[in-house]
Specification:
28% helix
Length: 318
């Protein structure tokens, strides 16, 4: 048993030696110094910057066990606490505003991850939640009603936060005005092919509030599909797609149905075919403009004897 007798001047510690007797230890140090240059281990009376490694190596005790045995006793000196950066520092400030924890859990500047206890600004699938191998839906299922972003972040959120999907796309395109657009290599190849064939076209434009890769005219649109992001059927299926690919696929299906309802069949040229079979893409574009295609995915065609030959159709979503 260890007991603090004189907290304001000196420590007088009564230590049970587990042999029926007691040892009196007097530590000549001001109580305030626990919070400045060093912290005293209540197990042995030695001074350290922090106790976690000392407890583990010397006393075979975890920080949690120590805190349970000696409630309200610090594990770090103030000097050590100041070396902690970011929101994990209990004295962390944002501007002139002290981060005060409300109810021990939430505050206006951060939220607490219920899975690990870390304090973060927001919980996202591609950010903090990824280290727990879970997404937002799984997190909310496990911890119903938990906040996903801190309150001051949501108060100062992006202007597009409340936009509909259509408004987001329109804002995204408008926001690109005056900024250079970086095209993918497959996109550049197809654009150059169209230029070589004398086919007028526009790159990355809005058509009916939908962003399209290449617009030729009111009835002819070309989409350049990356193998990964758009889930090429030779490489991806329902079992091995991640949540980003699923979200992208959902948007692709929505766009496909939208244009199809307006009598526009989009030609989908896939990265694999653009890189491996350039002539096939050229024949597909010319046949597409001549209204000679029965299917609009390049992976369903072969180039044989200078002409297009359709293969057995691959199972795809649109």
């Amino acid at each position: 048993m260890i007991r603090l007798v004189s907290p304001l001047e000196d420590f007088i510690i009564i230590h049970d030696n587990h042999q029926g007797g007691f040892i009196l230890l007097r530590i000549p140090i001001k109580f305030s110094s626990i919070y400045t240059d060093s912290v005293v281990c209540m197990e042995c009376g030695n001074h350290y910057q922090q106790l976690s490694s000392h407890l583990r190596n010397t006393h075979s005790m975890s920080s949690e066990e120590y805190s349970q045995k000696y409630p309200n006793m610090p594990l770090r000196s103030l000097k050590s606490v100041k070396s902690i950066t970011g929101v994990n520092n209990p004295n962390y400030r944002k501007g002139n505003k002290v981060r005060k924890v409300l109810d021990g859990k939430e505050n206006v500047d951060f939220i607490v991850c219920r899975e690990c206890g870390d304090r973060v600004r927001m919980l996202t699938n591609s950010g903090h939640l990824r280290k727990h191998h879970m997404n937002k839906e799984q997190y909310l299922c496990k911890f119903p009603g938990s906040p996903m972003v801190c309150s001051d972040f949501s108060e100062n959120k992006s202007p597009v936060s409340n936009f509909t999907y259509e408004e987001r796309k329109k804002y995204s395109i408008q926001n690109q005005i005056g900024n250079p657009i970086t095209y993918t290599k497959p996109h550049i190849k197809i654009s150059n092919l169209l230029q070589d064939e004398g086919i007028l076209h526009e790159n990355e434009v809005m058509v009916f509030n939908h962003s399209v890769d290449i617009n030729i005219d009111a009835k002819h649109i070309i989409e350049v599909q990356g193998n990964y992001w758009h889930s090429h059927p030779d490489k991806f299926n329902e079992s091995n797609m991640n949540h980003i690919q699923r979200a992208k696929l959902s948007r692709d299906i929505e766009k496909h149905k939208f244009f199809q309802s307006r009598g526009v069949n989009i030609l989908y040229l896939w990265e694999k075919d653009i890189n491996d079979n350039y002539d096939l893409c050229k024949h597909l574009i010319l046949s597409y403009l001549s209204e000679e295609l029965s299917n609009y995915h390049s992976f369903n065609y072969l180039l044989q004897n200078g002409g297009l030959e359709i293969q057995p159709l691959k199972d795809f979503y649109y």
